[in-house]
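Researcher: Please translate sequence to structure tokens.
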Amino acid sequence: MRIKKYAQTPAPLVIPTMPAPRTETGVVMRMFREVAFFESLFRSNKWIWLFGVMFHFGMLLVLLRHLRYFTEPVWFWVNWVQPFGKYAAFAMLAGLLGLWARRFLVARVRYISTPSDHLMLALLVGIAMTGIGMSFLVHTDIISVKAFFLGLMRFSPQPLPGDPLLLVHLGLVATLMIIFPISKLLHAPGVFFSPTRNQTDSSREQRHIADWAKALEAGER
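Model: Translation complete:
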């Protein structure tokens, strides 16, 4: 739904943020750097960039580690990720707490923060903390957990362990999956539709005129 809204938003003028590339190849490279390394955020605020990188890359490793519950046999590179993904959860949690603290400590950010912003962060923090708890404090039967998810994929349901921490973790993840498509968390695709990022700096080489301006010019003639 949000992606459809992004795609339908008109962009009648050429307004790339400077310095902007002058070729399509340059735009592609700029978009890659923005999505992969948060280039503009790095230039504007190093602390937010650091917390953002910790959260996003930590979460990426955690998600890759979780693939072992959905594959049989487990892919070799998923096995390689396991030790890194286990401790990346701490980086994910630290990044989340840093971003959440910003919403309390920075006055202008606190002013524009809504209850939903705090609830989203609380949900993600809860997922990270319960996951860390199962990895380091209260261990669960991961063999049964894997059998449960493989059973769902094969339409052959298996019993799920009744560990309270596991049930809370899965409940929070299910809640996140439900609200993710309609929440602010789905912001990455918006970068590809942003006219300040996906346009070339061609205002000197080519005249760009909005539709309403064309109509005015036609009327004057």
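Researcher: Any highlights?
Model: The chain has a mean pLDDT of 87.
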